[in-house]
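Support request from a user on the community tier.

User writes: "When I paste my structure tokens into the form, the page sometimes reloads and wipes my input. The last time it worked, I copied everything first. Here is what I submitted, just in case something in the input itself triggers the reload:"
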């Protein structure tokens, strides 16, 4: 069946989005460079430059070449302050926030403890005030889009954080309060899914369209990316591996608690206990600190014990999904680095006939905030630039 040619307006929109994508990824470009990179004719490039300037999306930011002057030397770049963004990493009792321009340049950062026995309303107010102060410090009058990474399940039909007994009530009220106070578009996503987005864009999975990110931190979880698409499941629960029944625990997990599941083997608290058994734990050390100390000091017996535990979850994901690659994310995954990843690879290879490479995450806990920023930036750019032909 023949394909109908795109209408002139559709073709213009596609060309504009293509040029904006190049300006985002390559930085400022001349009209001639845009012509070469897009394959468009000179008149078409001239038209799109005029359109994009007229809409306030691009502007002249300089000239190319030390000796060149005139229209052909003009460098065009995206107007970075056309929109401002915020990203939040919401933990059980704390919030971190970063404020950026449309291209991701950081304008302000802040973090603060939230909760700790205070009432829900007060916790929400403190979190919202933290975002407002960060925006003010960054010289931002209005936020266009806010991305939030939080633990828990996201309802796939509403995009809201689901009501579960294990999460503080202020988590669920934060998105609505931010939208009401700031007038910004607010997006909420599971923290592990955002970490996978960041590791794919900027980290250990940059060359993979199919992989599983196994999050190892205070809690455990997994994000599943198949053929470039993040999979959420019927109820938003894909990757809730903390509830996976596993050998080596004394009880089974329940609908309201992951104690006794894979969580009990691989969470930070369990690794601290394991560190104490091996004589590595010192006062004030986190699970990631213990793993990092073990790597630095060559504590092979401890690392083998950790790898035995982590491999149970990694092998389960490999057997079900055959992703070919498992990234060990979170603070513990980064702390273990290549040393832990190699040990887990050996065990998964012995446990499964499916070839699975295990990699250390490169971004650690910072992946959540980075992923929330990417989500906010992509959403804002889709609104301002028009959606990409393929996402």
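"...and here is what came back when it finally went through:"
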């Amino acid at each position: 069946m023949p394909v109908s040619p795109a209408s002139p307006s559709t073709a213009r929109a596609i060309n504009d989005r293509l040029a904006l994508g190049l300006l985002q990824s390559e930085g400022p470009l001349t009209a001639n460079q845009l012509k070469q990179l897009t394959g468009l004719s000179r008149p078409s490039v001239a038209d799109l430059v005029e359109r994009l300037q007229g809409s306030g999306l691009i502007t002249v930011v300089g000239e190319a070449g030390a000796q060149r002057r005139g229209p052909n030397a003009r460098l065009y770049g995206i107007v970075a302050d056309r929109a401002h963004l915020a990203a939040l990493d919401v933990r059980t009792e704390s919030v971190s926030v970063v404020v950026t321009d449309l291209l991701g340049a950081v304008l302000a950062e802040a973090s603060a403890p939230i909760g700790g026995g205070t009432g829900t309303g007060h916790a929400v107010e403190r979190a919202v005030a933290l975002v407002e102060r960060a925006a003010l410090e960054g010289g931002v009058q209005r936020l266009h889009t806010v991305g939030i990474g939080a633990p828990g399940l996201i309802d796939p039909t509403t995009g809201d954080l689901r009501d579960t007994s294990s999460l503080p009530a202020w988590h669920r009220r934060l998105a609505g309060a931010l939208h009401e106070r700031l007038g910004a578009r607010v997006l909420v996503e599971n923290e592990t899914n955002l970490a996978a987005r960041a590791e794919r864009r900027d980290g250990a999975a940059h060359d993979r369209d199919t992989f599983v990110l196994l999050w190892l931190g205070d809690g455990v979880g997994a994000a599943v990316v198949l053929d470039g698409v993040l999979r959420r499941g019927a109820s938003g629960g894909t990757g809730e591996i903390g509830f996976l029944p596993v050998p080596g625990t004394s009880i089974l997990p329940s609908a309201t608690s992951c104690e006794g599941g894979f969580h009990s083997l691989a969470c930070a608290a369990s690794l601290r206990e394991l560190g104490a058994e091996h004589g590595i734990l010192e006062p004030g050390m986190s699970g990631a600190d213990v793993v990092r100390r073990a790597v630095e000091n060559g504590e092979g017996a401890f690392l083998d014990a950790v790898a035995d535990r982590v491999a149970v979850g990694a092998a389960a994901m490999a057997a079900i999904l055959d992703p070919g690659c498992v990234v060990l994310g979170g603070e513990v995954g980064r702390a273990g680095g290549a040393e832990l990843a190699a040990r887990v690879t050996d065990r998964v290879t012995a446990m499964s006939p499916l070839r699975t490479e295990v990699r250390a995450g490169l971004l650690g806990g910072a992946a959540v905030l980075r992923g929330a920023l990417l989500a906010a930036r992509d959403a804002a750019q889709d609104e301002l630039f028009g959606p990409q032909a393929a996402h």
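Agent notes: The reload is a front-end session timeout and is unrelated to the input. Residues 30 and 54 are 17 Å apart (CA to CA). The chain has twelve helices and twelve strands. Escalated to web team.
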